[in-house]
Specification:
The chain is mainly alpha-helical. It folds into 3 domains: 35 residues, no CATH class; 52 residues; 100 residues, Lysozyme. It is built from 8 helices and no strands. Helix 3 packs antiparallel against helix 4 and helix 7 crosses helix 8. This is Transglycosylase SLT domain-containing protein.
Length: 259
């Protein structure tokens, strides 16, 4: 505001200024002009643009702090990525070890299962072979019994001894015709109904009977299946006596006296 404008305002209002007031007006105008002049010549622009000039300065001051924050955020994100990558790598290693262990365990279980199957197969084959062998042996024995039964032996001492020898061969009982005949002649003279009524066995109530003078308890213990269960039967008597002699003396051939 100029001095002239200040004075004009006082005139328009009808106010008369004294010397002091005029001096004050001049001072005010001077101050106002100086302020205007200072603002007009401020670096970087016209009057009224000081706020616009201040904003870039503030922005430029804030930029380094924002960049640093972004750098910190990026660094933290990279650290998180590295940690996750390390965890994933360790998990992958653990999974690989567990997979290898599982595969090894499955392999061992499969090998065990195969070994068990092979053992079971071998056992089954052995059982079948044993059953076949047993069946074959049973069939062979049955055939031998049938053959022995089919053979006609004379009903005399010679026939009795030969039939007894056939049964003894089948059962694995040792003895010869000579050994059996010799002992029969000493014990009973070939009489299948012979009975001793005077020896110690008779006194004890179990007299010796038959071709080879066998007592009942001995006959019961050494009777051979396939022969008559009769102490007086000549073939059963010979076979039981020879079975006892084989157990006691090794064979009827080794017997030369009372036995």
């Amino acid at each position: 505001m100029t001095v002239t404008r200040i004075l004009d305002q006082f005139r328009l209002t009808g106010t008369r200024l004294n010397t002091t007031q005029r001096t004050s007006a001049l001072g005010l105008a001077a101050v106002t002009g100086a302020a205007t002049l200072a603002l007009g010549f401020a670096p970087g622009g016209e009057q009224g643009d000081t706020r616009a000039e201040a904003r870039p300065a503030a922005a430029s001051a804030a930029l380094p702090a924002e960049t640093a924050a972004q750098a910190d955020e990026l660094s933290a994100e990279q650290g998180g990525l590295r940690a996750r990558a390390s965890t994933a790598y360790q998990q992958a290693q653990t999974d690989a070890v567990e997979a290898a262990q599982k595969a090894e365990a499955e392999k061992e279980a499969e090998a065990e299962k195969e070994a068990e199957a092979q053992a079971e197969t071998r056992a089954q084959v052995q059982a079948e072979r044993a059953a076949e062998a047993g069946t074959g042996q049973a069939a062979s024995r049955s055939h031998e019994r049938d053959a022995a039964a089919a053979t006609e032996y004379p009903d005399n001492l010679d026939g009795w001894i030969r039939e007894a020898l056939a049964i003894m061969e089948r059962e694995g009982i040792p003895g010869t015709y000579e050994g059996i005949h010799r002992n029969i002649m000493r014990e009973s003279s070939g009489n299948p109904r012979a009975i001793n009524t005077w020896d110690i066995n008779a006194r004890n109530g179990v007299p010796s009977k038959g071709l080879l003078q066998v007592i009942q308890p001995t006959f019961d213990a050494y009777h051979v299946e396939g022969t008559e269960y009769d102490l007086y039967d000549p073939v059963a008597n010979i076979v039981a006596a020879c079975n006892y002699a084989a157990d006691r003396y090794g064979s009827m051939d080794n017997v030369d006296s009372a036995y």
